[in-house]
Design goal:
Blueprint lengths: L14 H7 L10 E2 L2 E2 L1 H19 L4 H10 L4 E5 L5 H6 L9 H11 L7 E6 L4 H21 L7 E5 L5 H9 L3 E7 L10 E7 L10 E7 L6 H18 L12 H9 L6
């Protein structure tokens, strides 16, 4: 059969794509066998999909987390949303945004001890137990150290089961905290089942929308490392305290200097 320019032979080696694959987790240059995807690529895809599903459905091991915080001598309280179980949590996002009655009573009791808190750190399972299990304790420790160095008084750490982002607003309002720092497992992707997110809010209260929050996303070894995430968060807190706001009106310029240097060295950005 006569071959033309539209019928090129398939590549038999992965080498032409090797250098590009080392720079990204995206699935590029997978190749094919006939009209099908190669077996190795298909199996890798199925494994990634299974890990993403597990991140959503496997329960967070709160006992192990509590043990870690106990070793760090960090006080904490255990809370729960109105979603009774994982099934209801996934079907009814609204119930994941509010605390159940027992949790509300516990926080009211905590707030009644006469102490005034500047900040509250809330750790929520969210949509990736893997992210919280792997990076939650490390991130909390880094944040607590930074807040202490800034002279800010923190409430006991709040561990929330079956929670969504907005549940932190109710926690901060009940405790009377000015600054809310919520850490949550983000919706897993096929290359990132362990991504942790931070949502920061100034003067949080029930009913706020996403435009009132600042988000630091993709915290994981292959993304934004915890130390860099903590650095960005402290910059946001400092500016937030100065401007007395958060959200869309508070722009993250923590890496402005490095961005300017990159711009000067790249003619495409001039």
């Amino acid at each position: 059969m006569k071959k033309d320019k539209y019928h090129k032979p398939l590549l038999t080696s992965d080498e032409p794509w090797a250098s590009l694959r080392s720079l990204t987790e995206a699935r590029i240059g997978l190749g094919r066998c006939g009209s099908s995807q190669r077996t190795q690529a298909q199996l890798a895809f199925q494994l990634a999909h299974a890990r993403a599903r597990d991140a959503v459905h496997i329960p967070l091991d709160f006992a192990a987390l509590q043990q870690q915080f106990a070793l760090q001598a960090m006080p904490f309280v255990r809370l729960h949303s109105q979603a009774i179980d994982r099934s209801e949590y996934l079907k009814r996002p609204d119930k994941g945004r509010r605390l159940d009655r027992a949790s509300i009573d516990l926080l009211k009791e905590q707030a009644g001890n006469g102490l005034v808190y500047d900040a509250s750190i809330v750790l929520v399972d969210g949509l990736s137990s893997s992210a919280v299990q792997q990076h939650g304790a490390v991130m909390v420790e880094l944040i607590c150290e930074q807040l202490k160095s800034m002279g800010l008084r923190c409430s006991p750490l709040c561990l929330v089961e079956q929670g969504r982002v907005a549940i932190g607003d109710e926690v901060a309002e009940l405790l009377g905290s000015r600054l809310l720092i919520l850490l949550i497992g983000e919706r897993p992707g096929l290359s990132s089942p362990d991504s942790l997110g931070i949502y920061y809010t100034y003067q949080a209260r029930v009913g706020l929308t996403d435009e009132s929050r600042n988000c630091i996303s993709n915290i994981r070894p292959a993304g934004l490392i915890p130390e860099e995430a903590a650095k960005r968060l402290m910059w946001l807190i400092t500016e937030s305290e100065r401007l007395m706001l958060s959200g869309v009106r508070l722009k993250d310029k923590s890496n402005k200097d490095s961005a300017e240097l990159a711009r000067k060295g790249n003619f495409l950005l001039e």
